Amino acid sequence: MKKLLYIFFAVSIIFSACKKEEGCTDSLATNFNVDAEEDDGSCVFGITGGSWITQSISTTGSMTVSIGGFPFLDSTLNFVETNPDSLEPYKLTFNENSLYTEHDNSNNPVEGGTWSVSGDQLTINTGDTTLLLMIESLDRDNAVLSLDIIENSNDNGVTIDVDITQTINSTREW
């Protein structure tokens, strides 16, 4: 009986020692595990690495314009733009050093600045403004970012009220 227990014990040690380590096996992930032999689906990706190419921008919301207190324009917006010549930003590159560059569809740099992420909020500081975007989803190859634009102005009797949300759908170019 002792022999049978020893054999059972030895076999269980051999099988447990042969178990492959699981973890993230994608070297582009922020939690890449160099020792992992089997991917367990836990890979996490950040905004850095490669460049983000805008595929579409959805715009929803409203805009009103009054002149001298009389309504001039009262519009509900709901459209999707997919023409690369009209998409802005067309291409964004976020570097590890917290700098970013925006490129046009001819790959010419058009703007740059700094960026940071806190939770699901992406802050982009351009030369003249700060943009607060929400990271709706982010994986290895796709990102969905949203930007709320709420502006109210009154200049020389012209009142403009804008309340729109833009949703930017991008793919990553490695």
Stretches where pLDDT is under 50 for at least 5 consecutive residues are none
Count of DSSP E strands?
Answer: 11
Structural class: mainly beta
Distance between the termini: 60 Å
Q: Over all CA atoms, what is the radius of gyration?
A: 25 Å
CATH architecture of the largest domain: Beta Barrel
Strand arrangement, major sheet: 3-5-6-7-8-9-10-11
CATH topology of the largest domain: Lipocalin
Counting structural domains, the number is 2
Helix share bin: under 10%
Morphology call? elongated
The ordered string of helix (H) and strand (E) elements is HEEEEEEEEEEE
What is the count of helical runs? Answer: 1
Strand content: over 45%
Quaternary form? single chain
Largest β sheet strand count, sense and barrel closure? 8 strands, antiparallel, barrel
CATH class term of the largest domain: Mainly Beta
Mean pLDDT, rounded to whole units? 91
